[in-house]
Amino acid sequence: MPFELAVSVPAGVDEAEVRRRLLEEHTVEIGAAFGELAGKVWRVGLMGHSARVENIVHFLDGLEAVLGEPSGHPAEAARKVLS
Q1: How many angstroms separate the CA atoms of 56 and 78, rounded?
Q2: How far is CA 27 from the centre of its chain?
Q3: What is the pLDDT of residues 15-62, one digit of tens each?
Q4: Distant-in-sequence contacts of 4-9, Cβ < 8 A, 24+ apart
C-alpha cells in the first residue's frame, strides 16, 4: 500500500544535512518540502518494493541514528505495528 507522509523537522536541525547523511550513510533518500513547508518537513514516500516492513524500519533506524537521539525506539514500534 503506497503512502507519503510529512515528518516535521525538529527545531534547530539542519534538514538538508539530515537528508544528505541519510542518503550517504544509510542509502535512504527522502524529499525536501516546497513553498511554505520548505525546511520545516521532510517528505517520506514508500511505494512498491520500498513499502515493505524492513524498509520502513531501515528508514526509522537511519533517521534515529542521524538525529543522534533515540526517540522511544520507533523502529521497534513499527515492527510490532506492521507485523
Answers
A1: 8
A2: 11
A3: 999 999 999 999 999 999 999 999 999 888 767 777 787 888 888 888
A4: 4/43, 4/44, 4/45, 4/46, 5/43, 5/44, 6/33, 6/37, 6/41, 6/42, 6/43, 6/44, 7/41, 7/42, 7/44, 7/63, 8/40, 8/41, 9/39, 9/40, 9/41, 9/42
Instruction: Please identify which residue in the block is written with the cell numbers 513553498.
Output: 35
> What are the grid coordinates assigned to 31, written together?
524529499
Closest alpha carbon to 42 in 67, 78, 25: 67
Q: What is the largest CA-CA distance in the chain?
A: 36
Which helix (H) or strand (E) segment holds residue 24: the answer is helix 15-26
Coil, strand, or helix at residue 33? coil
- Inter-residue contact 18 to 42 (CB < 8 Å): yes
Q: What is the pTM of this model?
A: 0.76
